[in-house]
Amino acid sequence: MLRLLIFVVLALNAFKAKSEQTWHIVTENFPPYFSSELPSNGWLFEITKLALKSQNINTEIEFTSWNRSLNLLEKQKKTAILGAFYSKQRGEIFDYSRPLAVAHSGLFKLKKSTINYDGSLESLLPYNICKEAGDPVSTEFSLDPRLSLTSTSNLVNSLYLLQNERVDLVAGTKEVGEYWLDHSPKLLKSEEQEIEYLPPHLAIHKLHLIVSKNNPDADEQIAQFEAGLKTIIKNGAIAKVLKKHHFSDEDIKHYLKALADNFDH
């Protein structure tokens, strides 16, 4: 009888621990996708939170630098990173979810400047380029030793250097850079120092949730998260979140199709 009681208590404790599981997510501010400054920490975090909630998993999020995020996850001090680009090097260390969104990497310039960029890395050789530390931009870009590259702790600081004409170009994520140009008090709103995005893109990246391969539960964690995504696609919760964050009906339709297609491959 005593053994039976011990077994029941242990089983209940295990069930309770599982049912009260909390994921500690870490990432950098990456608006308009997710940020401590956005309502509900941004639409992509809200979707992530709902997906995990459907699996009885609570979430906490910490916003910090990108390099610190990678370090915390690699040491298993956090459960997951939200919004990681794929790279071969990272793929050896982390397990990736299916794609959750798309971002475009490229170049920013002062509108008044003449930059002879034709889409090739060779055309960038004459210029001093700044980027955020830890942002690969693209594999070819980050590995090209011919480029004159400097880095700052974040994209806003890089854009600030550009606005003050201390570099010729800034490499970074189009959507994030355009958000900061509209919202950061550090960046001047002046026609003389106006910054614009310079096509074509250097790369198109898919954003993923990643977990550490050092964690023996890594495969199960990804499976739980993706099961949650399927649940909130099916019950319509994702569409409600996107509507709340001012997505148009057409954008919602396009996003849901892209997300569903990821589960078909």
Characterization of this structure:
By secondary structure, the protein is an alpha/beta fold. It contains 10 helices and 9 strands. Strands 1, 2, 3, 4, 5, 6, 7, 8 and 9 form a 9-stranded mixed β-sheet that branches. Strand 6, helix 5 and strand 7 form a beta-alpha-beta unit. Helix 2 packs across helix 8, helix 2 runs antiparallel to helix 9 and helix 9 crosses helix 10. The chain is globular and about 55 Å long. The termini are far apart.
Helix/strand layout:
Blueprint: H1 2-19, E1 22-27, H2 43-53, E2 58-63, H3 66-74, E3 80-84, H4 88-91, E4 94-96, E5 101-110, E6 128-132, H5 139-143, E7 148-152, H6 155-163, E8 169-173, H7 174-183, E9 195-212, H8 218-234, H9 237-244, H10 249-262
Parallel strand pairs: 1-2, 1-3, 6-7, 6-8
Antiparallel strand pairs: 3-9, 4-9, 5-8, 5-9
